[in-house]
């Protein structure tokens, strides 16, 4: 089965799918009705969830859950069944439910929850290893002429315009030099930050701390992305940060593809 002329794909770190459900996740989902909904940090295994989560009308649901309960994990709801569903194939990342790889007829979708490097870079090596694995797998696909979309919570603000207070955060997780350097290498390898095809200025964020009324004051970070390989970029028709959608400390990000 193929999509229609346009595809709408939304990515959202829900910071716990059960918590998000209580805040209206599924009523929003039903109203918005994307072709594909990619969720990160679901913090759930399917056997912990009711039918509300597993059997959403009109969609097939796929889970990549961490072995540890209540931790990490990603999920995809798709109107059309993919040709295949897999993961990175690397145990240390798959054990944390970090990535789904879904093959469709005309592109391959990566739904990723990049690790947090944590205070003092405690998990920086783990994160950079995950980043390298994603880059390796996506680059090989792109080199074979495959269209690739990598969406999710990258846990990286790439440029100074991608966070409200860059100078104050240069030694904080998510804006460490090593993380930004990897993002540079990802772009240099032939991938495009799709949002920046349309919006060049700062002030657009996808995550806000719960502290200090940050969201109301728009003191945030842009760390959730849709990135595509360059050959796929001409099919990107729009990217929207849905900052008015509540229910998590992140907001959804929508991409429309021709």
Description of the structure:
The relative contact order is 0.16. The mean pLDDT is 97. Strand 7 (108-113), helix 5 and strand 8 form a beta-alpha-beta unit. The chain is α+β, with helices and mostly antiparallel strands. The protein is 21% helix and 24% strand. It is globular. The protein has a six-stranded mixed β-sheet, with no helix packed on it. The chain has a six-stranded mixed β-sheet with strand order 5-6-7-8-10-9.
Give the topology.
Blueprint: E1 7-13, H1 17-22, H2 25-32, E2 36-40, H3 51-54, E3 60-64, E4 74-78, E5 84-86, H4 91-94, E6 99-103, E7 108-113, H5 124-143, E8 148-153, H6 177-188, E9 191-193, E10 224-229, E11 236-241, E12 253-257
Helix pairs in contact: 5-6
Strand content: 15-25%
Radius of gyration: 17 Å
CATH topology: Deoxyribonuclease I, Chain A
For the largest beta-sheet, the strand count, sense and barrel status come to: 6 strands, mixed
What structural keywords apply?
Deoxyribonuclease I, Chain A; 258 residues; 6-stranded mixed sheet; globular; 6 helices; alpha+beta
Summarize the model shown.
The protein has helices spanning about 15-20, 25-30, 50-55, 90-95, 125-145, 175-190; strands spanning about 5-15, 35-40, 60-65, 75-80, 85, 100-105, 110-115, 150-155, 190-195, 225-230, 235-240, 255. It has about 260 residues and is of the alpha+beta class.
């Amino acid at each position: 089965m193929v999509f229609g002329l346009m595809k709408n794909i939304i990515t959202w770190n829900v910071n716990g799918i059960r918590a998000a459900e209580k805040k209206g996740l599924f009523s929003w989902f039903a109203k918005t009705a994307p072709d594909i909904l990619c969720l990160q940090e679901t913090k759930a295994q399917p056997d912990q969830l009711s039918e509300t989560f597993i059997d959403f009308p009109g969609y097939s649901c796929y889970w990549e859950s961490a072995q540890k309960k209540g931790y990490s994990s990603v999920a995809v709801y798709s109107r059309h069944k993919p040709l295949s569903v897999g993961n990175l194939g690397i145990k240390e990342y798959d054990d944390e439910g970090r990535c789904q790889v879904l093959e469709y007829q005309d592109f391959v979708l990566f739904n990723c929850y990049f690790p947090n490097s944590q205070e003092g870079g405690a998990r920086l090596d783990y994160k950079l290893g995950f980043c390298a694995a994603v880059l390796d797998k996506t680059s090989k696909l792109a080199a074979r002429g495959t269209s690739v979309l990598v969406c999710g919570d990258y846990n990286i603000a790439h440029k100074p315009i991608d966070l409200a207070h860059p100078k104050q955060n240069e030694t904080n997780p998510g804006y460490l030099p090593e993380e930004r350097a990897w993002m540079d290498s990802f772009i240099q390898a032939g991938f495009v930050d799709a949002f920046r095809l349309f919006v060049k200025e700062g002030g657009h964020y996808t995550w806000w701390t719960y502290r200090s009324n940050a969201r109301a004051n728009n003191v945030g970070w842009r760390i959730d992305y849709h990135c595509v390989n360059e050959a796929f970029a001409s099919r990107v028709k729009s990217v929207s940060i849905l900052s008015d959608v509540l229910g998590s400390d992140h907001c959804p990000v929508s991409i429309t593809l021709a």
